[in-house]
UniProtKB/TrEMBL annotation:
It comes from Aeromonas veronii. This is SDR family oxidoreductase. Gene3D superfamilies: NAD(P)-binding Rossmann-like Domain. InterPro entries: FAR_NAD-bd, KR_dom, Maqu_2507-like, NAD(P)-bd_dom_sf, Sc_DH/Rdtase_CS, SDR_fam. GO terms for molecular function: oxidoreductase activity.
């Protein structure tokens, strides 16, 4: 027995061919493939466990007349093909309408004509439940013209393709309409993100954000018909070889489909993520006229908000229309033919964990992101302010070691010399521009020079800063403390940011990182001037992020905990409390460069912010306790930290006091 297969190297096709070889060991399979894809042949032969004498590649192109098969090959195959399986198609909701029309619709017409030209015994067309459109109600296997709401290109082209088989094919045909095909129920193997997989990233984000026992809010939509690929292949091969089933359509669907809410709960359980305890029925919004929602989508602001939301979740733009999926599929003809064979759709809960495990190990988009620091910064110009000391120097070392062109601005000649010597000894390079960032004219002039010399800055790490530890009560006559901290921490930083922003906007790429403080989240006593200056810059950065969200420029804030740097050295009590090292702090900066966090903070910092938001009075009492525990020492007092001070500092590690 001889077969001709289109789409033989695809997800369903390659498994169909393997099944044919298993059930018909003496058969020969001719499969269509592009000549440019010959490098895939060894892998395919190994998967099928056959050689080229049994699996014969036929070079062609789905977009060409008669699929681009040469006249010589056509002559060779005339009268030899018993079954012609047409599986090739574009299965992608995001694909452009033009290419879907070309491949799905016209490609099917050319496949039918080639099958007729070869005199094939049977034409088997792999259609889809999408051919029914968004029909409201029960769609039977003998229904076709009743399909409605075919405005999505994928739905329309699959309907048109099936119509070509029904109306133009002159040889016996069979049409198979699989449900939403997912991975193998035995192995979980899948080749791409589609169908329910679109929601996996959202489930994963919820798992990272909330514990599994936390009840979540979900949606309750229509019934979604999911089938594993092994069921589709087994059913198709069995039905294709049964006598007397010509010119019929078979729904390869689940006779007991799950609702969208149940499906999401099943996958959430498989992922050990919070399960939706409260479900909002998406059909409640069906009272909104379709033409009204269509009109809203013509408005650019509405489209921008929608596109940004679905891009962040990794969803195609049409997926929300399928949540309230209105169609149920009758599969009695399929069940009749499969009766007694043991071929049936397994319950989703029995293999959902395999699908999730395979996705997380092989298909999760995060796996294909370059997570290395070198991949992010190599060859890029990175300006790190305050890079001659503490966090800045540790960060500059890591960036230079990863291949970045590190630039900094510093004023202290001794520190400049020490930094140059250290980098030279390590075999690293750093370019230092001498100047004082608290002098706004100098800050503006030096930043302009850096931009001119390097053609712009790719990444800016705003690290330079001044900290003053003094209670407000002791600052009544020291207003200049506020002026000094604001001058460097806020105004100086803004001069640098506004100097590098224009070229970033012009290039439509750039990353600005603000080294803030955990004190902004916890409102640390004794640091009113410092926290105020950092809070001001944080607020400016958050506003800028909103303005430039569509310009390709990213903004990040790192609420750094207490770090053992020269800045904190004058405070003797800090010598005996646990603090982060500059190298550990630099790791946070590098992590932000790699992952572009909007805000990065320690758990304690986030907890402090939450307490201040939910129970502000309690937060004030806690911070007042730390304030009184660490009373300011009297002049000349060099006593060590008390047991209470050590205990409190350990409990709230990283918080300023």
């Amino acid at each position: 027995m001889n077969y001709f297969i289109t789409g033989g190297s695809g997800f369903i096709g390659r498994r169909l061919i393997k099944k044919l070889f298993q059930q018909h060991p003496d058969c020969i399979v001719y499969f269509l493939m592009r000549a440019s894809h010959q490098d895939k042949l060894p892998e395919l032969f190994a998967f099928w466990n056959v050689d080229e004498s049994r699996a014969v590649p036929v070079f062609g192109d789905m977009t060409q007349p008669l699929l681009g098969v040469s006249v010589e090959m056509q002559e060779q195959l005339i009268g030899k093909i018993d079954h012609f399986f047409h599986l090739a198609a574009i299965y992608d909701l995001n694909a452009k309408a033009g290419i879907q029309q070309q491949v799905n619709t016209e490609g099917t017409r050319q496949a039918v004509q080639l099958a007729e030209r070869l005199g094939a015994g049977q034409f088997h067309h792999c259609s889809s439940i999408a051919a029914a459109g968004l029909f409201d109600g029960l769609f039977r296997e003998d229904m076709f013209d009743e399909a409605e709401h075919l405005d999505m290109p994928y739905f329309q082209t699959k309907h048109e393709a099936e119509g070509i088989v029904r109306n133009e094919c002159t040889i016996p045909w069979r049409v198979y309409r699989p449900g939403i095909v997912v991975g193998d129920s035995n192995t979980g193997e899948m080749d791409k993100i589609d169908g329910p997989y679109y929601f996996f990233k959202t489930i994963q984000k919820l798992r990272r954000l909330l514990p599994p026992w936390m009840p979540a809010i979900g949606v309750e939509g229509g019934r979604i018909n999911i089938v594993p690929v092994n069921f589709v292949v087994d059913a198709m091969v069995h039905i294709a070889h049964q006598e007397g089933e010509e010119n019929k359509t078979f729904h390869l669907t689940d006779p007991n489909p799950m609702r969208v809410g149940d499906m999401l709960s099943t996958f959430s359980r498989a992922a050990h993520a919070p399960e939706p305890a409260i479900r909002i029925n998406a059909s409640l919004f069906n009272f909104i006229p379709r033409h009204l929602t269509a009109m809203l989508m013509t408005m650019a602001p509405v489209r921008r908000i929608r596109d940004a939301a679905i891009a962040d979740l990794g969803l195609p733009k049409d997926v929300f229309r399928l949540i309230s999926y209105p169609t149920r599929f009758d599969s009695r003809e399929t069940q009749r033919v499969l009766k007694g064979t043991g071929i049936e759709v397994p319950p989703l809960h029995s293999y959902a964990w395999r699908l999730w495990d395979y996705w997380e190990r092989h298909l999760d988009p995060e796996l294909f992101i370059d997570r290395s620091l070198r991949g992010r910064v190599e060859g890029k110009v990175v300006l790190v302010t305050g890079a001659t000391s503490g966090i800045g120097r540790a960060t500059a070392r890591k960036l230079a070691g990863a291949g970045a062109n590190v630039v900094t601005i510093a004023r202290d000649e001794q520190k400049i010399a020490e930094t140059k010597a250290e980098f030279a000894e390590l075999g690293l390079t750093i370019e230092i521009y001498q100047g004082d960032l608290s002098n706004l004219a100098q800050a503006e002039e030096i930043t302009a020079r850096i931009v001119a010399d390097h053609g712009g800055v790719d990444i800016l790490v705003n690290n330079a800063g001044r900290s003053i530890r003094r209670s407000i009560e002791d600052s009544f006559d020291r207003f200049h403390d506020l002026e000094r901290t604001m001058q460097l921490n806020y105004f100086g930083a803004l001069k640098v940011i506004m100097g590098v922003l224009p070229t970033m906007i012009e290039k439509k790429k750039g990353h600005i990182i603000n080294i803030s403080s955990i004190g902004v989240l916890t409102n640390a006593p004794r640091f009113s001037a410092y926290v105020a200056s950092k809070s001001a810059l944080d607020a400016w950065v958050r506003t800028a992020a909103s303005e430039f969200a569509d310009k390709g420029v990213s903004f990040s804030i790192i609420n750094m905990p207490l770090v053992k740097t020269p800045m904190v050295a004058p405070t003797k009590v800090y010598e005996q409390v646990p603090m982060m090292t500059p190298e550990e702090a630099a790791d946070l900066v590098c992590d932000t460069i790699i992952n572009k966090h909007v805000r990065l903070a320690t758990r304690l910092g986030v907890f402090g912010q939450v307490v201040h938001a939910l129970a502000p009075r309690v937060a004030q009492v806690i911070m007042n306790t730390s304030f009184r525990t660490f009373a300011d020492p009297k002049d000349g007092d060099k006593s060590k930290a008390t047991a209470d001070q050590v205990a409190v500092s350990t409990l709230i590690k990283g918080i300023h006091f």
